[in-house]
Design a protein that fits this description.
The chain is mainly alpha-helical and about 900 residues long. About 70% of the residues lie in helices and about 5% in strands.
Length: about 900
């Protein structure tokens, strides 16, 4: 009873003390201690735990890309950040509540020592959401408001990371330098400072500086996990810097550090690829890799193992062994497209260097199907693949035409006998194919490699045309030979499908084929001799037509060898084959000239002199002959071409400035001055464009003239399309005009950098000229607008410079694109916005946080406006 009696009097006293302590405006010991305890053990603790949970989840989910130098810290792509939004939002929410309830600013000084921790936590959570600008606000706030606090250096370090993530290397370095020169850097932060320096230099390919900084980071780090990661990266940096022996040392060091298994495995692979240090004794390394290949837990890495074995074999001069292992690497690459592409690319490069262009084309074709567009040599590989596609096209044209001409020029009886022989062979091949399909035909990679080579050797001049595998892409032929013609469906690789539909089986192995003769297409009996005879060129006119196609193909092939593949012996050989086959062809003068140049470069003076003499005898007044007799003539020709080029540039400048009458007059004068010049069609086309600004009818009239005078030029073809568009397809005309405008093309390309992200937080942005001094007036207008119509949304108005040309005022942030567009639609109706910016070029739009980061980097608001109009279905306020 006495205890209860005492409690009755004590409880109100305790309650009163708590009420007194809850005040954030009194600088009393009880107040300070109460708010410190509740700030730390209530909100901050829970928020920090949520933050740590999110970081751990991210680091466990993001897969390191060992094809490139690893980042010192795991961050992932923007889509990776989305998986931890909930944890980071909770951390921000908890920290925000702590600041609101427990901040004690008395006489300008914060009395609660945990408030800066909460601001820092907000910044870190924003950083991991990859909202770097918002994160910088928090980090800079901590550094500026608590300059002598324990978190000053850490907040500056996080600010440097934010600048680094945004690609602002100079600001990141400056921030680190300020950090290092202000007070004493905490010991546990020294290693991390050097790690950030290393990342900055690595991203700029300044590998020596990166190596120096990362070495310091390793020496000062106390974390075994960080040390192993840094050590692996150091090996990569040495490898990038061409110091393979040093790289091997650090990869070996990783193996002694008990790093995660994937990193250990990659260390062994990277050691193998640094083969310069193992040229004398590769046997132990080969043995280690073969042991890895036998280990079941490395099944998903077999592609990398065989690639490493292939690289060693190639370095040791074992070419066939290398090819076999590259093929096995490609075969085992089931999910790693980058590795598959690298394996195909090496096979492509090897066969290309051997001059085996047909096989190289097939490998390049396979490479391009899986090569990521981010591959550092993507454009180079793409161009070579296109060149080889062109080469194979020429070769196939010649082979097909030769096969048809050979049969077409036979006597009827010989022709029928040849066809009958082919049909008998075709029946036998079809029977075998059907039998293989029923049993399930699986080919090993070595067989695939052998068959690539066999196809190359068997496509000789005399092969049959109609069902010759060389008449289509080797890659497609090989695919169909192994897998059959598969429909687009899941599990197409299964050779043991349980059943064929009757239609599918008939299409694959039936006795009829689709035949097109002239304008007629019909089904016919596959083994009917008459079907094949009907497709042969038996008249002189038909044969002359195929000969003309052959001449074009030979000439194009010769130029391709010379100017795109730089294979001068092959180019000379092909030009001579063309002259042997068709000595009176229309390109003789050019062929003699090119052969003179080729044999001069190949240091075969007798052959060069031969073709020089033939050229002069054939047409002594041609430009080619004059160049050979007078070297200065080429300079005069070049000077004349430079004059016409400069004149055209001047005309085009007038067009771009909108001086269309002046442009048309200049083009007219230059058409007379440079008659016969290669740029003549361009002058005519530009004149038509300028005159066409008067009216649509005038444009059509002018373009008709261009097409009629220059029907086979690019300009003539374009003029024909414009006429067609204006006479029946006006929307396409508009699109064509926009594509021909260089500024529009640039903006369209820049607009592609933005991504659809309507679920992310959004800002409303007004962009206007920096010199207009309207930022304060706009900010006041927007604040009043928000207070009147969106008071519950907790929106903030901020102004900042995009660059020297543009200034921005933003309203942030809104949850998702739908809410942002509601705001946009509401403010569009406000006449004051138009009044404030009258007489100025301006634009406004809503933008997601990820896209705002892109805009802040590329600084082309017009490009985002294009994206906005299409993505959100509205026109801007420009």
């Amino acid at each position: 009873m006495k205890i209860k009696h005492h409690i009755k009097f004590i409880a109100p006293l305790v309650f009163a003390l708590v009420l007194v302590a809850c005040s954030t405006e009194k600088d009393k010991f009880v107040n300070r201690e109460y708010h410190k305890l509740t700030a730390h053990y209530n909100g901050y603790f829970n928020g920090n735990e949520s933050f740590r949970e999110g970081v751990e989840k991210l680091e466990n989910s993001v897969i390191d890309d060992y094809e490139n130098v690893l980042p010192v810290y795991v961050l992932g792509a923007p889509e990776d950040a989305k998986m931890i939004y909930s944890q980071m939002d909770r951390a921000i929410e908890k920290a925000t509540v702590v600041i609101r309830r427990h901040s004690m600013v008395i006489k300008g000084e914060e009395k609660n020592q945990w408030i800066d921790d909460n601001y820092l936590l907000i910044g870190k959570a924003r950083f991991y959401k990859q909202d770097y600008l918002a994160a910088l606000e928090a980090f800079n706030y901590v550094a500026l408001q608590f300059p002598g606090g324990s978190l000053y250096h850490e907040s500056m370090w996080w600010a440097a990371r934010s600048y680094l993530a945004m690609g602002n290397y100079s600001q990141a370095i400056y921030t680190l330098e300020v950090l290092e020169t202000t007070g004493k850097v905490p010991n546990d932060l020294k290693s991390e400072v050097h790690a950030i320096y290393a990342q900055i230099h690595a991203e700029q390919e300044e590998y020596e500086y990166a190596i120096e900084q990362l070495t310091r980071a390793i020496s000062q780090s106390k974390s075994k996990e960080r040390k192993s990661r840094y050590t692996f990266i150091l090996g990569q940096l040495y490898e990038k810097n061409g110091q393979c022996n040093r790289a091997i040392q650090y990869y070996a060091e990783v193996l002694r550090m008990k790093a995660p298994y994937v990193m250990e495995f990659q260390s062994q692979i990277r050691r193998a690829l640094c083969i310069s240090g193992y040229r004398r004794n590769a046997a132990p390394l080969i043995e280690a890799l073969e042991e890895l290949a036998q280990d079941e837990k490395n099944l998903e890495y077999l592609d990398q193992i065989y690639f490493a074995l292939a690289e060693i074999a190639w370095e040791m001069g074992e070419d066939e062994k290398a090819k076999e292992n590259y093929s096995l690497s490609a075969y085992y690459s089931t999910s790693n497209n980058t590795q598959k592409a690298k394996s195909y690319l090496r096979l492509a490069e090897i066969t290309f260097d051997e001059g085996n262009y047909r096989v190289a084309q097939a490998y390049y074709d396979s490479t391009m199907t899986v090569l990521p567009t981010t591959f550092d040599r993507y454009e180079e590989v793409k161009q070579l693949a296109e060149n080889l596609d062109e080469l194979v096209g020429y070769v196939l044209t010649i082979e097909e035409n030769d096969s048809l001409l050979r049969l077409g020029r036979m006597k009827p009886g010989d022709r029928e006998a040849a066809i009958d022989k082919y049909l008998a062979k075709l029946k036998e091949e079809d029977r075998k194919r059907e039998q293989e399909a029923r049993q399930g035909f699986n080919a090993s990679m070595r067989m695939q490699q052998d068959n690539f080579n066999r196809n190359e050797g068997s496509t000789t001049k005399g092969n049959w045309y109609f069902y010759n595998p060389s008449t289509v892409s080797l890659g497609r032929t090989e695919f169909q030979r192994i897998w059959g013609r598969r429909r687009l469906e899941d599990n197409w690789r299964r050779s043991n499908k349980q059943s064929f539909s009757s239609d599918e089986f008939e299409e694959e192995f039936g006795d009829t084929i689709t035949v097109t003769i002239g304008d007629s297409t019909f089904r016919a009996y596959k083994y009917d001799r008459s079907i094949y005879v009907a497709q042969l060129p038996t008249t002189q006119e038909e044969q002359d037509s195929l000969d003309a196609l052959n001449i074009e193909a030979f000439f194009g092939l010769s130029l391709l060898y010379k100017e795109k593949l730089f294979d001068y012996p092959k180019a000379a050989e092909t030009f001579e084959r063309l002259l042997d086959r068709y000595p009176e062809n229309k390109y003789r003068i050019q062929e003699y000239f090119y052969l003179f140049r080729l044999y001069t470069d190949l240091e075969e003076p007798e052959k060069a002199a031969k073709y020089k003499q033939l050229l002069i005898e054939l047409d002594p007044n041609s430009d080619f002959a004059k160049i050979l007799q007078d070297p200065s003539y080429a300079d005069r020709l070049e000077e004349e071409r430079n004059r016409s080029t400069a004149a055209y540039a001047s005309c085009y400048a007038e067009f771009e400035k909108g001086r269309f009458t002046t442009c048309a007059k200049k083009c007219e004068a230059n058409l007379k001055l440079f008659e016969g010049d290669p740029l003549e069609p361009k002058f005519a086309f530009l004149r038509a464009m300028a005159n066409g600004k008067r009216s649509e009818a005038k444009l059509v009239e002018e373009m008709k003239t261009v097409y009629e005078k220059y029907p086979f030029s690019e300009e003539g073809q374009e003029a024909q399309r414009i006429v067609a568009f204006y006479t029946g397809e006006t929307e396409e005309v508009v699109a064509q005009k926009e594509e021909s405008d260089s500024v529009a093309n640039y903006l369209a390309e820049e607009a592609k950098k933005f991504t659809s992200s309507k679920d992310d937080s959004h800002f409303y942005i007004i962009v206007f000229p920096a010199e207009s001094n309207k930022a304060n007036e706009l900010s006041t207008f927007l604040s009043n607008f928000n207070q009147q119509y969106f008071s519950l949304e907790n929106l903030n108005v901020r102004g900042l410079f995009l660059d020297q040309e543009y200034q921005m005022v933003s309203v942030r942030s809104m949850k998702g694109g739908e809410k942002a567009m509601s705001y946009f639609n509401a403010i569009e109706k406000e006449p004051d916005l138009e009044r404030i910016l009258t007489g100025r070029e301006w634009m406004h739009f809503v933008i997601s946080q990820p896209n705002f980061a892109i805009l802040f980097q590329n600084k082309v608001p017009e490009a985002y406006e294009l994206f906005f109009m299409e993505e959100y279905g509205l026109k801007s306020g420009l």
